[in-house]
Amino acid sequence: MNVYRYEENPLITPADVKPYHPGFEVIGAFNAGIAKYKDEILMLLRVAERPVSPDPNVVLAPVYDPKAKKLELIELRKDDARYDFSDPRVIRDKTQSAGFAYLTSISYIRIARSKDGHRFTIDDGPFVYPSNEQETFGIEDPRVTQIGDTYYVYFSAVSPVGIGESMVSTTDFVSYNHHGMIFCPDNKDVMIFPEKVNGKYYALHRPTTKSIGMPEIWIAESDNLLYWGNHRHLAGLRPGKWDSARIGGGAVPFRTDKGWLELYHGATAEHRYCMGALLLDLNDPTKVIARSDKPILEPDAPYEKEGFFGDVVFSCGVAVEGDVVKMYYGVADTSMACAELSLQEILDSLTYN
Questions:
Q1: b/e code 282-294 from CB counts within 10 Å (16+ = b)
Q2: Backbone torsion region of residue 204, taken as left when φ is above 0, otherwise alpha when ψ lies between -120 and 50, otherwise beta
Q3: How many domains does the chain have?
Q4: Residues 6+ apart with CB under 8 A from 128
Q5: Phi and psi (nearest 5°) for 135?
Q6: The domain that contains 114 carries what CATH number?
Q7: Of 182, 199, 269, 293, which is most buried with the most CB atoms under 10 A?
Q8: Using one digit for the tens of pLDDT, what is the confidence trace for 66-97?
Q9: Distance CA 336, CA 253 (A)
Q10: pLDDT digits (tens, 9 = 90+) for 282-295
Q11: 109 with 126: CB under 8 angstroms?
């Protein structure tokens, strides 16, 4: 597979983003939804900000208070035996069966804009910020589907009751309507198809099971984009391969002559994330026609291998121009990059059922 990584990669790093919150540092600008709007490419960045503690023995956990409509900081001492601080992303409560307590950062959505898809300017403030009790720990990993003149932006909404998928819609990327949660916890990696198929909207999603089952890709249908049903299992894990531990949607599926092409992520038990492809039937996207035996993109570049969470490439969205697939992707849970691939090479690399 021929892959052309942009010379400017990473296109956006945490150092490029000014913190929105006073006294915070930006630790991630990644996993952005991608949209074409007028003459620009927009990245709807997941910006993760962490409060800087003045006391090295205290960790500050940010939590949005929807009643007060402001961000609160919870002080947790490192010598408090109840808490486990070993994971830089989360603080775990060892006295609780679930083990989870707080996140160490708060995420929201911020827009970066580009005329050429290589050089981006970043808005000064958030586009979508936590606003309700389902988003108290932040909103993460947005994706964007354009249907007509409306852009549907959906994202992981994180709170103590779990991670679900919420959605807003906009026509101008200035104001938006909040539609609430469209997939309840625990669920993420939602990808809404950009058009109806046989009168139905379709969406990929990834339930996180805590009993029987594995983190795999499902598909659902809807009449109105808000209420989803007829859920069916679409694609599973493959022992011994690059997608043996977890899989989920990456970019919004796009139409090709051969079928709907979905660029999805897969990971091993060692948390190495690669990108591959699923080809779905044009008239019945619940049918998988073909799949990648080998990744189409692996974490090889230094900025993909090193970062907040290394060895990660995570597709976020594509711009397709003829045979060129411009894939924007998150790297190392830290920054954003782009690579160009040949659509025909991707299709030719698949193993057909």
A1: eeebbebbbbbee
A2: beta
A3: 1
A4: 108, 109, 139, 142, 153, 155, 168, 176
A5: -125, 20
A6: 2.115.10.20
A7: 182
A8: 999 999 999 999 999 999 998 888 999 988 87
A9: 20
A10: 999 999 999 999 99
A11: yes
